[in-house]
Write a structure and sequence with these properties.
Layout lengths: L2 E5 L10 E4 L10 H4 L3 E2 L7 H7 L6 H11 L3 H16 L2 E5 L8 H11 L1
Parallel strand pairs: 1-4, 2-3, 2-4
Helix pairs in contact: 2-3, 4-5
Length: 117
């Protein structure tokens, strides 16, 4: 599987393949041209309530992950995750996120889930 994660603020590269933003809000200070997105999948981003509660506080990450996994069990998000997996089986797919923390964010969780499907 050719699935990667990357901060949306990093320079787009041909090796990124299909670029999918997985944030609910548009990244600050970034134009659509700079983001070079193929898709913006707000539906698989954490809900506004969960995102605000987590606020990237590392001590909440385990609970955030648990609650986020529950949100992703709904019909539309689960279909989108399977679609991403199909794309990543044939060519590179990069999940883009804006968070400063590169190890404890929703893209990390999504990558783990998609790889386990």
């Amino acid at each position: 599987m050719l699935l990667h994660i990357k901060r949306v603020y990093e320079k787009p590269e041909a090796s990124d393949g299909k670029r999918i933003l997985v944030d609910r809000l548009w990244p600050r200070g970034l134009t659509k041209e700079q983001a070079a997105l193929d898709e913006w999948m707000k539906e698989i981003a954490p809900s506004h309530e969960l995102r605000k509660w987590y606020a990237h506080r590392l001590e909440h990450y385990d609970k955030f992950k648990e609650l986020y996994l529950q949100e992703l069990q709904q019909d539309k998000p689960s279909r989108l995750l399977r679609q991403i997996k199909e794309w990543a089986e044939d060519s590179p797919v990069t999940l883009l996120y804006a968070a400063k923390d590169t190890t404890m964010n929703q893209a990390v969780v999504l990558k783990e889930i998609i790889e386990s499907l």
